[in-house]
Amino acid sequence: NYYYILFHTIIIINIFIFYILTGENMIIKGIKNAKITQNIFNLKLPFQLLNADCIASKKHILHAINQATSKTPITNNIWMEILVRASAQRQISNAIKTIGAKGENANICVVCDSEETFNIILEAVGGTPDNNILELRDSKINNIKKIYNIKENENDKEYIIKRVCEKISIIEVI
Q1: Which residues, in sequence order, are CB contacts of 70 under 8 Å at separation 6+?
Q2: Which residues, in sequence order, are bridge partners of residue 51?
Q3: What is the spatial distance between Cα 64 and Cα 84, in angstroms, rounded to a whole number?
Q4: What is the pLDDT of residues 104-150, one digit of tens each?
Q5: What DSSP string describes 44-76?
């Protein structure tokens, strides 16, 4: 238990330091019932779309952003790096299959650089802004545990979020 508390504290400190040092303010928002087509990726805007049903929490995404900006890159693009880190995968194709946003009536997590970019994406995909879809709900627990290979028979939401963040961190050493 001590190690989980220590790990959680380190994550929060790293996120705080990330925002102080980089001065970057990433926009992280949810959109419910979006329609994802290839056209969205042709916009050439700075963003990433993730399947919100595969996201444990906003803390999960903040940790992925922190890892993407502070560790040795796996990809050659910060937006793809966020996808790879958030998925806890090293292979881009696996990351896209695992947590990439796709289809109609999709719940998505948008990570972008500005409100302007977010509004363009919202207009392109439709749907309704809803940040609640980013949080870990009971209906997401089994899927999250499967995606991130969390074998413990534990359904405590904070514990699961910590384990997901651990999985993101350890891809650095795999």
Answers
A1: 14, 18
A2: 108
A3: 8
A4: 999 999 999 999 999 999 999 999 999 999 999 999 999 999 999 99
A5: --SEEEEEGGG---HHHHHHHHHHHHHS--SSS
